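On clarity, I found the account of how folds are encoded harder to follow than it need be. Since the whole study asks how a given chain folds, the encoding of that fold should be made plain. For illustration, here is how one protein appears when written out as sequence plus structure tokens:

:::
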Amino acid sequence: MKQLLLLFFAFILTNINAQDVAILKYNGGGDWYANPTAVPNLIAFANTNINTNISQNPQSVAINNQDIFNYPILFMTGHGNVLFSNDDADNLRSYLISGGFLHISDNYGLDTFVRRELKKVFPNLEFKEIPTNHPIYHQTYDFPNGIPKIHEHDKKAPQGFGLFYEGRLIVFYDYETDLSDGWEDEIIHNNPKSVREKALKMGTNIIEYAFTN
């Protein structure tokens, strides 16, 4: 029965409108709704520059809702606690191994909780730093040195981590860079145009990669 369900979910993911994205709503008290202008701005940039046709108003979907299967990519961010129930973990696992993709942007303070809760989803998988020659850094926009630094917190180098399932990258996690801050309206963080552009280009690479892999 489980195998049949996975095949059904995979069928859904390959037969939906391939150009839609959503924001993942999770429990635990963390602000999953942080950076409200980020994803809409990223969508606008991708639609303009790589000819995607993504709905300009992304939906928010709960982690335990079957509606996550309507989207080839989910975005997740926040500053605080994350808590996945068993049902949450099962639903997210089914989504990811059926062809879905999750981008997590650490908005400072998310790291401990994300790593803990992703272990519920994939107990046997470990986050691995993604090498700079990985295709996600070389889509329409080329990042030969890997993930760019966008927002400074602890003077640590930016890192891109991934979870790989049967050789496929299913979760991309940006750490100590905060890409989603760079997608927000300029007035919010006062990032220079060059920094915001780097963030938007890297985010566009993530969308392009998720849509085609």
